[in-house]
Design brief:
Helix content is about 50%, strand content about 30%. The N and C termini lie far apart (about 30 Å). The longest helix has 22 residues. The radius of gyration is 15 Å and the shape is globular. Helix 3 runs antiparallel to helix 4. The protein has one domain: Hut operon regulatory protein HutP (Hut operon positive regulatory protein HutP), CATH 3.40.1510. Belongs to the HutP family. Antiterminator that binds to cis-acting regulatory sequences on the mRNA in the presence of histidine, thereby suppressing transcription termination and activating the hut operon for histidine utilization. GO terms for molecular function: RNA binding.
Length: about 150
């Protein structure tokens, strides 16, 4: 049971890092958090996105994979790319009830340490000034660690 608590705690830490990256309001804040997480061995990246929800799904998944590879969060392997794609789709599925048929705008945050990878989405959802806020989170276990 003791080992199980460590795994859960590690998953939560990585999920929190992804959420914090997704909630940043500036590139400076992103850089500051990225540096701090990096000191603890957590690789992170955040990327902005806006558009109509349904047509955005594929683009958001692609953008998450490309940015995670570019920033060294994952390697260019089938397993790593699939983990980011799966976690991103999971996060997006959680906001679907609010976002269907509407525009979204916000950030995707990705965090990884060792075998734990999380993707968070933090979006404003709506039409004109009538915005709702939606948050989604996906986690995947991936083998090994990136050499970033």
């Amino acid at each position: 049971m003791k080992g199980m608590n460590r795994v859960v705690a590690e998953s939560k830490k990585i999920a929190m890092a992804a959420l914090r990256m997704a909630m940043t309001e500036s590139r400076e804040e992103e850089a500051h958090l990225k540096e701090g997480f990096g000191r603890h061995g957590i690789h992170t990246v955040a990327v902005d996105y806006g558009g109509e929800y349904l047509t955005a799904i594929k683009k958001i998944v692609e953008r998450a994979i490309v940015s995670a590879k570019r920033e060294g969060v994952i390697k260019e392997t089938h397993g790593d790319e699939g983990a980011v794609a799966g976690a991103t789709r999971e996060a997006l599925s959680q906001i679907m009830p609010k976002a269907m048929g509407l525009n979204i705008g916000g950030k995707i945050g990705i965090a990884r340490r060792d075998e734990h990878l999380s993707v968070a989405v933090f979006f404003g959802v709506g039409l004109l000034h009538l915005d709702e806020v939606a948050v989604g989170l996906g986690h995947r276990a991936v083998p090994g660690e990136t050499n970033a």
